[in-house]
Amino acid sequence: MAGETISYEPGKHNVFESDLGKIKDNFDDLVTELGNVKSDVSEHLEGKAATSLGTAIDDLVTKLTKEQENWQTVIDNANKIEELIKEADGKAAAGIEGNG
């Protein structure tokens, strides 16, 4: 990595952040749709099959909710990295100006 620089590019970060947000929104949509499916199962099916399917949907929603929380952590970390890069760029610029 010698000779390469890390710099903050607001446009690229905004696109990246937007993409991360879209994925998080897809989790929201999927959890909502699974809730709708579970309602349909409860309304239209009976017996062990309905119970098993309802339990499977609940398990899946639990897993997706955990993944959604993990995804929010990714988004939060991306924002922290953005701030660190901005800070490093500012310090580098101040060092260059101080030496000039």
Describe the structure.
Helix content is 88%, strand content 0%. The chain is mainly alpha-helical and 100 residues long. The model has no long low-confidence stretch (mean pLDDT 87). The radius of gyration is 23 Å and the shape is rod-shaped.
Q: Sketch the major β-sheet.
A: none
Order of helices and strands: HH
Low-pLDDT windows of residues:
none
Radius of gyration (Å): 23 Å
Percentage of residues in helical conformation: over 70%
Structural class: mainly alpha
The global form is rod-shaped
Strand content: under 5%
User: Mean pLDDT across all residues, rounded?
Assistant: 87
Number of helices: 2
| Total strands | 0
Keywords:
100 residues, 2 helices, single chain, mainly alpha
List the helices and strands and how they pair.
Blueprint: H1 10-44, H2 47-99
In short:
With 100 residues, the protein is mainly α. It contains two helices and no strands.
